[in-house]
Design brief:
Elements lengths: L1 H6 L9 H7 L7 E4 L6 E4 L11 H12 L4 E7 L8 H12 L9 E6 L4 H16 L26 H9 L3 H11 L4 H13 L3 H11 L4 H23 L8 H11 L1
Length: about 260
């Protein structure tokens, strides 16, 4: 961030720790567009939270798209890394970058990487491109077991950040609510979360998913299915790494049962 500010002669007073703390005081991930500077600067919650929020990259790209007239975006959060390279967060960002055409009309995406970790970053990117090129398994047919609840709304006291936090642990109710939240805003993310909730047996998600499938393209459905598979793959990696504390006990139990 400092390098970007210096290169474009942007006044650093706009980005003091005190002001950013105020913007990011809520728990969870947030994006903030700083007006009055060129190029536009988007700040977000600290990088260390990214490993637990899989949609961060898509949120940033959606924010860039909302700003309008953005031809390129430069991610600077990996330019200087303290400690180990954040592989999960970097992988999640690269998934978003590879699928960016579905989220933002950008001509170029630049990701600055600490010189010490360029080789590791390139390896992650190449592995990801191979995964993305793999065909999807045949989708199991599902029955719509209840009518569409078009008027389903989020509890006014339930924040999107809370839903993200709980959905990432495998909470099926929050997955469903998050999918509903994204339906009119970012359909591909809605498809992702509703698909995951449907896998977990949510009848409400099933109904909403069937309705949404009628409104999206096959290409968008393919992207959403890949995101769902990547999410499950990350959960399996957490179990293998004995990081079950990051998931709800009920979800871990369900995952082990499915694996058996």
């Amino acid at each position: 961030m400092n390098a970007v500010l210096v290169a474009h002669e942007i006044e650093r007073a706009h980005f003091t720790t005190k002001k950013l703390d105020a913007y990011h005081s809520d728990r969870g991930f947030r994006t903030m567009v700083h007006e009055g500077v060129k190029p536009k600067v988007i700040t977000c919650t600290e990088t260390e939270k990214w490993d637990s929020v899989s949609d961060v990259g898509f949120e940033i790209l959606s924010t860039a798209d909302a700003v309008g007239k953005c031809k390129s975006i430069c991610f600077t959060q990996f330019a200087h890394v303290q400690g180990l390279f954040p592989e999960i967060a970097f992988r999640q960002l690269m998934i978003a970058a590879e699928l960016a055409e579905h989220f933002a009309k950008l001509e170029k995406i630049v990701v600055d990487v600490d010189a010490r970790y360029i080789e590791q970053a390139e390896s992650i990117w190449q592995d990801l491109k191979v995964e993305l090129s793999q065909p999807l398994p045949d989708e199991e047919s599902t029955e719509q077991s209840m009518s569409i609840t078009e008027d389903m709304q989020l509890d006014p006291v339930t924040s999107t950040a809370f839903l993200h936090e709980r959905a990432e642990t495998g909470d099926v109710k929050c997955m469903t609510q998050l999918g509903q939240h994204y339906r009119s805003r970012t359909p591909i993310l809605a498809l992702k979360w509703l698909t995951l909730a449907s896998f977990r047996g949510s009848k409400v998600a099933n109904a909403l998913l069937e309705d949404l499938r009628q409104k999206v393209t096959d290409d968008e459905m393919t992207v959403a299915n890949k995101l769902s598979l990547f999410w499950f793959a990350n959960q399996i990696k957490k179990i293998e790494a004995h990081r079950e504390s990051e998931m709800s006990p009920e979800f871990v139990s369900w995952m082990r049962k499915e694996a058996a």
